[in-house]
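Task: complex structure prediction.
Instruction: return structure tokens for all chains below.
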Amino acid sequence: MSALVPVAVAVAGGVGSAGRYLVDQAVTARHSRRFPWGIVVVNLTGSFALGLVVGLAARHLSDDVALVVGVGLLGGYTTFSTATVDTVRLLSDRRHLTAGLHGLGVLAACVGLAALGLALTA
Amino acid sequence: MTEVGRRSFPPVLLVALGGTVGTAARHMVGPSIPDLGRLPAGILTVNLVGCFLLGCLAETLSRRGDDTGRRRDARLLLGTGVIGGFTTYSALAVDTAALLRDDAVATAVLYAVGTVVLGAVAVAVGIAVGRRLPGPRQAS
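Output:
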């Protein structure tokens, strides 16, 4: 029933967001707190996963499933706002090189992983 | 003042609840903004608005005190949950990758780098606005 799809998207977003929180907690517990690895790992994995999903979507997934997983689950899982606040914090700590790596380096890596995901499935 | 013995809502549930709301908002707002040529204006708008809001929220909360109790709950529900769910990195990455694959290199670079740079500016503006909102000037 297509009226349920927006609800499913939202709920999947909640699940994805919870997943983000848990991954962030797990990664942060095991690595240096000097660099915000948690959200970086979330965004890297989420970008790769969405590349796979979008590549699969055209031929193998219904529009509804693609929406719920792509916009909902992975859209909720990844975050741009938290990552950018992290970049700004690094800048305000005068860790400019690290901020550049965090802002633009991670961007390039996420785009690369998304491209890989697309290429693997399309 | 510590809040010993206060039963708090589980953090992961606060995030899940907020994330549901933020994702619903993104799903409604995003597609309603038409692309600028091949530039994904909807996602760009959502991401920049989210950066502004999170900068504002972070500043507002830190002015009121440390990251405990209700402030921590507010951060988890509104910051990690609503705003974290509202913005998205995966769409930014995949849309950029698709532009590159289609040889729209200039658009791809402009979009991706522009989002990151403008996002940082939006966070800074949000922090500045948060600083000027009425409320306590020091941690209580």
